[in-house]
């Protein structure tokens, strides 16, 4: 048996020369939250039932929650949410899925241009394509190492940990588990902050500056902060670094939290009441940017760009801008690529040295009598 720098591929067996692998054995799974398959009440109901049955998302006793979920929420919310989804749906489908798919493709291109032989796929924590289905597919393709990259820059048990749960849950059913690595957070990554700053500056280059920049993050119940969830602190750190990059004074920006669901207290200040207060206080122009969302989705396109706009203008505001998420902006793809590259360190993904070692092994195998 030849000593090979590659395990388990390529193999030198039965007197045949090893062949150059055509596929990569390392993969990245870029995981986002998920979205319904279509903007109809039955599809939204399926999606919400899966999402809101996750104990990471709803941290109250199951018996009580099941009564609320099945007795109230799943009877009323699918219809309301489906109408909202319909207002942002595109010919190709849900914006969240489209942006996530495009980001995965661009990430693969970015890494490929730098000599990394890595397969990049995307998955959705709720809905399709699911995390287990994508991991099954990667394994069937011969992938032996997977880097899990959540689409969430700030760590929260309600989002990031839930993605990891889905991966661990899949692994429990697998005999030969691939090597797994996880990116927990990148809320203060210089490339990510630079991409955010670039996105805001580009908007201001064309539209001028606002009186106030509102940085709106997805909310979570306040209780999670007291239980030790780092999400709140990481949102504030992202906002501080972004404000520094944009050279903003404290009076020129404000951090808020959106998307509250239910009656419990969530992280404050809430986005919509803040927009109403700013409108009433005579602030003329507000720009809202959502640094925690790496893709535009229902929460940015409908809740901010439509509902938030209406709330601010009705309260007396004169001009409202929603600044698009980083989506497919090249500086963001480069940041994501660099984050992935750092976490891939030590895994053999470079084509150059791989190819050299393969060629050397092939030559030795042939010298030892193996057929080409
Ligand atoms: C009920 C609790 C919820 C928690 C906690 C929560 C945390 C959380 N969510 C995101 C990112 C997204 N959420 C999105 C939609 C959405 N979120 C909730 C509820 C909670 N989220 C619901 C019920 C919905 C569905 C829409 C609705 O019916 O209102 C989305 C958009 C999905 C899309 O299809 O476009 C994103 C993205 C994060 C990052 C997070 C914790 C930090
Ligand atoms: Fe959410
Ligand atoms: Fe919302």
TrEMBL record:
Intracellular or extracellular location(s): Cytoplasm
NCBIfam families xref list: hemH
Pathway: Porphyrin-containing compound metabolism; protoheme biosynthesis; protoheme from protoporphyrin-IX: step 1/1
The protein's enzyme class: lyase
InterPro entries documented for this protein: Ferrochelatase, Ferrochelatase_AS, Ferrochelatase_C, Ferrochelatase_N
Enzyme Commission numbers on file: 4.98.1.1
HAMAP family: Ferrochelatase
SUPFAM superfamilies: Chelatase (SSF53800)
Protein species of origin: Rhodoferax koreensis
Function: Catalyzes the ferrous insertion into protoporphyrin IX.
Taxonomic placement: Bacteria, Pseudomonadati, Pseudomonadota, Betaproteobacteria, Burkholderiales
Family: Belongs to the ferrochelatase family.
MF GO annotations: ferrochelatase activity; metal ion binding
Domain of life: Bacteria
Keyword Acyltransferase: no
Cellular component GO terms held in the UniProt record: cytoplasm
The entry's keywords: Cytoplasm, Heme biosynthesis, Iron, Lyase, Metal-binding, Porphyrin biosynthesis
The name this protein goes by in its record: Ferrochelatase
């Amino acid at each position: 048996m030849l000593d090979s720098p590659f395990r388990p591929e390529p193999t030198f067996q039965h007197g045949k020369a090893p062949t150059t692998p055509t596929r990569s054995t390392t993969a990245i799974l870029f995981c986002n939250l998920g979205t319904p398959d279509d903007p109809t009440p039955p599809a939204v109901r399926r999606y919400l039932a899966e999402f809101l049955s996750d104990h990471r998302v709803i941290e109250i006793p199951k018996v009580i929650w099941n009564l609320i979920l099945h007795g109230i929420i799943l009877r009323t919310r699918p219809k309301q949410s489906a109408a909202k989804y319909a207002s942002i749906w595109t010919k190709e489908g849900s914006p969240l899925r489209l942006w996530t798919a495009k980001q995965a493709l661009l990430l693969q291109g970015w890494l490929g241009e730098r000599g990394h032989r890595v397969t990049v796929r995307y998955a959705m924590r709720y809905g399709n394509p699911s995390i287990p289905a994508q991991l099954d597919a990667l394994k069937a393709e011969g992938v032996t190492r997977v880097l899990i990259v959540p689409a969430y820059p700030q760590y929260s048990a309600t989002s990031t940990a839930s993605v990891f749960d889905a991966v661990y849950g899949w692994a429990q059913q697998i005999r030969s588990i691939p090597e797994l690595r996880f990116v927990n957070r990148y809320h203060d990554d210089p490339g990510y902050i630079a991409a955010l700053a670039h996105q805001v500056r580009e908007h201001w280059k064309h539209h001028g500056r606002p009186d106030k920049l509102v940085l709106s993050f997805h909310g979570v119940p306040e209780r999670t902060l007291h239980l030790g969830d780092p999400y709140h602190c990481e949102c504030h750190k992202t906002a501080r670094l972004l404000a520094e990059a944009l050279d903003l004074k404290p009076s020129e920006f404000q951090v808020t939290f959106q998307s509250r669901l239910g009656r419990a207290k969530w992280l404050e200040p809430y986005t919509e009441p803040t927009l109403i207060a700013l409108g009433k206080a005579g602030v003329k122009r507000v720009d809202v940017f959502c640094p925690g969302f790496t893709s535009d989705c229902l929460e940015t396109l409908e809740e901010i760009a439509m509902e938030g706009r209406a709330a601010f203008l009705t309260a007396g505001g004169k001009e409202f801008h929603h600044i698009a998420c980083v989506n497919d902006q090249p500086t963001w793809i480069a940041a994501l690529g660099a984050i992935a590259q750092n976490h891939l360190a030590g895994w053999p993904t470079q084509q150059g040295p791989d190819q050299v070692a393969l060629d050397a092994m092939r030559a030795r195998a042939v010298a030892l009598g193996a057929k080409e």
